[in-house]
Design a protein that fits this description.
single chain, 259 residues
């Protein structure tokens, strides 16, 4: 595996109202937007922080309507060979939700799910003469944490460790809620996973966007028509988080270094 194999490289929102969603997240997170055009494909909106693209926005696909899939954020993980990774997912109990396909000048991607049904995108980015700049890991507007509510936390960690090369960093005992497994990529802690509570209907990945302060962000969420469903809560290390729903019904999370 290369150093980039297993790295989260993008996050994407599918929503039925892209204009309203862009306005909401630009207010809440502090992003700005730009447009990207790829021949033969609809215009794609880029969320930027300090002029650097960190996430994308697209219309909810018509082919997914009526299938019980809500508007949602989905992460992209870089892999060395999408086609091989698709085979690896299937061979290890996962599934392929969309077979590999090329996005001109961007890369080759596929939509996959782990053995319990949590969905991710995987991508082999197209070669670039000048790599895209990246935000500092703790910069406002960046994706600061990746979290899996798994069908089984320990099994999920073993699965992703095998396919992406992630390492079990440390365990955090949450009492009645079970164990929270922290995982790392190339020695850097990037997320956590746990067995989902029974009241959560299906396993899923969630993403935490960094904001400067959590209380002010809560005000922006509620005034923009969103709803806080959990928090604010202080987490180990001193950061503050909330979990929320945007006005179109997509689940998202925020993390801040202070209240």
């Amino acid at each position: 595996m290369s150093e980039t194999h297993g790295k989260f490289i993008w996050c994407e929102l599918m929503t039925p109202d892209t204009s309203a969603a862009a306005k909401f997240y630009c207010s809440v997170v502090g992003w700005t937007t730009s447009e990207m055009t790829v021949e033969g494909m609809p215009t794609y909106t880029i969320f930027e922080a300090n002029g650097i693209g960190v996430a994308g926005l697209m219309e909810f696909p018509a082919e997914l309507e009526g299938k019980g899939i809500p508007p949602n954020w989905t992460g992209y993980v870089a892999v060395d060979d999408v086609d091989q990774s698709v085979r690896d997912f299937a061979a290890n109990g996962g599934s392929v939700r969309r077979p590999p396909a090329d996005i001109p000048s961007v890369g080759r991607f596929a939509v996959v799910a782990d053995p319990h049904g949590a969905v991710l995108c995987i991508m082999t980015p197209a070669p670039m003469e000048n790599p895209m700049p990246e935000l500092a890991a703790d910069a406002p507007g960046n994706i600061g944490w990746h979290e899996l509510y798994a069908g089984n936390g320990e099994e999920a960690l073993a699965f992703y460790s095998k396919l992406f090369g992630w390492n079990r960093d440390s365990d955090f005992d949450m009492g009645a809620m079970g164990v929270y497994y922290l995982f790392s990529h190339n020695g850097k802690q990037i997320g956590g996973m746990m067995t989902k509570p029974e009241n959560i209907p299906m396993p899923f990945w969630s993403y935490y966007f960094i904001v400067p302060a959590i209380d002010a962000a809560i005000d922006r969420v509620t005034s923009g028509g969103g709803k806080v469903v959990h928090g604010p809560m202080e987490v180990p290390g001193g950061s503050w988080i909330i979990q929320a729903m945007d006005p179109q019904g997509a689940f998202f999370c925020l993390v801040a270094p202070k209240r």
